Amino acid sequence: MSNTAPVKSTTPRILIVGGGYAGFYTAWKLEKHLRKGEAEVTIVDPLPYMTYQPFLPEVAAGSIEARHSVVALRRHLKKTTIVAAKVTGINHADKVATITPIAGEPYELEYDQIVVTAGAVSRTFPIPGIADNAIGLKTIEEAVAIRDRLMSNFDKASTLPPGPARDRLLTVVVVGGGFAGIEVFAELRSLASSLVSKYPQVTFEDTHFHLVEAMSRIMPEVSLKTSEWVLKSLAKRGAFVHLDTQLTSAVDGNVELSTGEVIPTDLIVWTAGVMANPTVVRGGDLPVEERGRIRTRADLRVGTEDEIVEGAWAAGDVSAVPDLTGGGVGGYCVPNAQHAVRQAKLLAKNLVAVLRGELPREYFHKNLGAVAGLGLYNGVFQSGNLALKGFIAWVAHRGYHGLAMPSWERKFRVVWGWWNNLWLGRDLVNLEAVQNPRYVFEEFAARPRPAAPAAEPEKKAVTEAPAQKVAASR
Ligand SMILES: Cc1cc2nc3c(=O)[nH]c(=O)nc-3n(C[C@H](O)[C@H](O)[C@H](O)COP(=O)(O)OP(=O)(O)OC[C@H]3O[C@@H](n4cnc5c(N)ncnc54)[C@H](O)[C@@H]3O)c2cc1C
């Protein structure tokens, strides 16, 4: 028997934290750039798919099938080890991450290079009722639940007489007038307008749509003139935006506004901002800037201009990457998919370069503009001074996102779905009952007969007791 210790593998181990936009693209491109045996790549994400978040408003409106707007990691990452877990701690000083799997006990995983791409979560404020009654729009599950809720509410409302209970079911409140908020607001309005024609008991006037925005304008990504056109277009379709207004309470099915207005509602969608993933940022020892993001250099290594944190990389919404074009907010890239994808592609190249002893390049991307869908056949597009509105912008929105969806397999499913909807109409199936899938089975399931009542032997004992007593007294 040999006494020598097992030889430790010298192949660099790359750990990617989060398989969303930036994480998925980093792994995908690493698979392309790395030579065989040059490094081992592991991606950790509690979800088995990357979510194409720009499609969430259309999923909420039933214009895209939920499964088509996510990309299965295992199907497209063939050389990457995929771990269904959360990273709950990063000890970069020792190059060890704490992995908390979706089943089983947490464990420590050693790495040589870490790529942090854990994205962002909805940022809320301590407003009474929001944490318990509102829903965000960052995940596919939320988009599906929003759609199902609106459709179930139509079903319920159609069985009720006119009155406050029915009004509440037919009222939607969206908080936040950024891109995500306006898109989901407009898409839900569009869905509700289609639903009205299927419910003879519900009229267009019975449905109420309110968006609450704290600032004096919506969609800061487009010009003021374009944003005003969006406001008018929404108002024409019966969807009202409350500017310079804050939501102050959301308790007992009533939304209260800073203007004093009270809106009874059964659906509150919260899209008023995001913050870098707190679990990963706070649970680690990587440097964090004032706004809670991982301090990242323009070459996508963690650190500052003067100090590099060796072996640590970051990209996407979790990171603060300097925007060298001079645009951005506070000198940093804004959190969007445009940046996340491009940063990830460069990150993969830079990481491979560093492994080979070469120099990494700096990230430089000039904003291409913004495009938003505002419900079926309506949209808005802005690039510099060029603004497109209405149908042509909607075509640009679908064209851009149809092409931007990663992988031909996924592009095909999405575009095929749109094609089908064009001829067959929007899919109006509501599967909210999936939340309680056993209800029919349980109602009719045969159960074992209850055990025979234990009362008989007791009776006997009682009748025997006096006899014994008698015997004892003889
Ligand atoms: C409704 C909506 C519409 C949008 N529309 C546009 C648009 O039109 N154009 C545009 O450019 N951008 C758009 N965006 C923004 C864009 O989607 C994000 O900027 C982008 O997804 C950021 O990518 P990311 O990889 O940083 O984060 P994400 O894509 O959010 O990925 C983060 C990943 O990390 C995983 N994760 C979380 N916690 C952990 C953990 N502890 N351990 C391991 N993994 C973890 C998550 O499960 C997720 O898979 C939109 C966003 C939303 C919500």
Automatic annotation (TrEMBL):
- InterPro entries, A to Z: FAD/NAD-bd_sf, FAD/NAD-binding_dom, NDH-2
Q: FAD/NAD(P)-binding domain: which residues?
A: 13-343
Q: Does the keyword Oxidoreductase apply?
A: yes
| Organism superkingdom | Bacteria
User: What GO molecular function terms would the record report?
Assistant: NADH dehydrogenase activity
* Pfam families assigned: Pyr_redox_2
- The record's region (Disordered) falls at 451-474
From the Swiss-Prot or TrEMBL record, give the protein name. Answer: NADH dehydrogenase
